[in-house]
Amino acid sequence: MTTTEPSLSRAGTAPGSGRRRAPRTGAWLPTWDMITTKNLEIRKRTGLMITMVVLIVVPTVLFYGLRLLFHMIDPHSYGPAGTPDLFSQVSNLIAEFGFIAAAALGAAAGTTDLSEGVFRHLVITGRSRLALYLARIPAGLAILVPLVALAFGMTCLVTSYEAPPQPTTVSLFGVSVPEHFDQAELQTWLLQHPRQAATGLPVGPATTPAQVRSAIEVNIASFYTEYTASEVSGQSPADNEMAKIGLWLELEVGIGFLVGLGFGSLTGQRTTTVIVMIALEIIVTPLLARTQLPYAIDGQRLVVGIAMDQLRPADLAAAGESGHGGLLLGGRGALGIPPMPTWAMISVIVGWIVGWSGIGAWRMTTRDA
Amino acid sequence: MNINELLAAGPVHHALGIGIGPIILVLLVIGGLAYGVTHRTQRQRPSTRPDPPFPSSAAPGPGADPSPRVGAPSPGRSAPSPWFDRPSPRSATSRKNGGWAVETHGLTKRFGATVAVSDVELLVPRGSAFGYLGPNGAGKTTLIRTLLGLTKADRGTMSLLGTPVPAERSRALARVAAIVDEPRFHPHLTGRDNLRLLAAARGGAAEERIGPSLARVGLAERAGDKVASYSMGMRQRLGVAACLLGDPELLILDEPMNGLDPAGMHEMRAMILSLVAEGRTVVLSSHLLDEVERTCDAVAIVDRGRVIRQGPIDELTRGAGAVVVQVDCAEPARAAQVVDQAGIAAGTTRTEGGLTVTFPAGAPRAVIADLTRRLVRADIDVYGLREIQTSLEDWFLSVTSRLGDPS
After folding, report:
1. Domains: count for chain A
2. Which residues make Cβ contacts (< 8 Å) with residue A101, sequence separation at least 6?
3. Which CATH architecture has domain B322-389?
4. Which CATH class is domain B82-317?
5. Do B36 and A36 lie within an 8 Å CB cutoff?
6. Which of B7, B14, B54 to mutate to test the interface with A (most CBs of A within 10 A)?
7. Residues of B in contact with A128 (CB under 8 A)
8. Of A272, B305, B352, B355, which alpha carbon lies 20 to 30 A from A298's?
9. Minimal Cα distance from A41: which residue of B?
């Protein structure tokens, strides 16, 4: 009977003679097997996986589970669970806790080979150290991305199934205005309803219809800003908004993972990395986001959390502005930092991703194993 | 119904389009990963056939004494290794033929002001069991780490199996395996999963060798257990199994006997000898002189980062220590008097039924013939003479004790 399992060299046969060519291990790209086995190595860390689920999925389940339960028991006191406000709160919760969970996962992926003494065995295989580093990225993201998608998917489901009746008007300073106006249409409608406008809108000392019309024309830009904010906050997010928020959440946790991985690879210290990343997310970034430092605004803009906040989709930012969220729950919509151009936001985000990945890879390729 | 109509159709479709879509995508990704892992795991499942006991048939059984006579070539080696041909250390021929498994010239590694490896010239012949001996802190592990690219050398050149490192490190290490310090693995993974991780890094047919490697070191039955539950001896075995994944031509084992009980040491020794018998080169770094003497053909002695002697063990020990001869004769007292009067010995000691004669270190073997002649001329009945071999330990201690001697 023949066997397909290659046996080890037999006595008298020189190993390595007349056999396969040695595998090319110097390539910088990781193989599929390297990625799947690294993924396996991370997944088998029970404590870490429990932490991931507790931080990313459990809050969503608890939040909506309790709200659905309360609504079922007492629908008069507790409205439907699928309100836009709850959607924003839970999404921000996923973003905030997801970032921390991602950082913990990145720190583990970047340090455990070293701390458990396996790194040297991997290096001795002759495999490119860069490939060893790069294998960790898809291996970790393959755990993180599905968890976030699962939590956000539940959020979308509840928001869709349990949404309250959608309003047909927008409340603008107490004045009911039809939906889906652009600025010109809003101005026209207000000018056609000067009496209603005069009772609700902040038009100053204007009393006559002519004065009201004049005040409307002067302040229409600010009225329209308020109108769009009210419109967004009162309605369930549109499909494309949900998709954008989902992608933004994945980007947020992806950054947390890559920075944690890079920083962990740099220091080789898992605990230190996790502490620094938590401090960055819940102390440094919110403080810098709410405070304008004279002559240092551009420096503040280099913090990835601030760039990500400014990239935050409108529905989440609106929830932050209306007071939901907070330091821990995300929703840092009330930023003290003047908006930055899109190219600057993207540059900061890409800079953090590429920079920390580069630092981690450099340290991995140069460190004593 | 197109996607826009679907999404506009109401909350249920809305949820289907936005909520469930990503989940399905995610499940597909997870499923793909899980399938890949499971599929490979199933391929690696041990057969129902009982695993062979440790060690494999190529090695002597547990009851047999695997220790070869010191200096004897290992079984299975057909041609004398180039080391014993004594080529010049920098011989172009040896390099051209790839005669050295390990070759270093002027290798130096510093840690700040401390010189851990100092100007090391090391030649390890292919197909041999080579001992790298030295007291603790002598720089043994640092040299190995430098050879394997785990740390950078400050100066010097080196090659593994004729391939220069670090210039062609990946190519060289594809045929090399090593245990450095102690074999360490992810404790939360099983032995088999740990090997899968390393096999994936090795590439090629390494993954298909997991089963045979585990069987060979006698770990097939425990391969599904977490490494955290392994004893030190089992981890050492798993380390050897990891080494075998690449079907290496050169194995570098750093203190492989550490933490092993006598039975474990016996098994490890048998394993090393069987590897050498297959034509592999094994470099054994150790401070256990007895183990090296029983396992290796040749040694290098290192101290304070420098290789101070290297060569076949029997040759090194023969010329190094004092020559001691046990003489069985009729009149030990008179025999001692004859030897002392002749002034050919460093000392004599009366023993029960005979005499022990000690000649100065480095004395030629002709002194033994001279001793015999003198005793016969003095009409003393000589029943037998036996040269007492100097052990590697005696020699090691004598060599290292000379380190402080400028001569």
Report:
1. 2
2. A51, A52, A55, A56, A144, A147, A253, A256
3. 2-Layer Sandwich (3.30)
4. alpha beta
5. yes
6. B14
7. 170
8. A272
9. B189
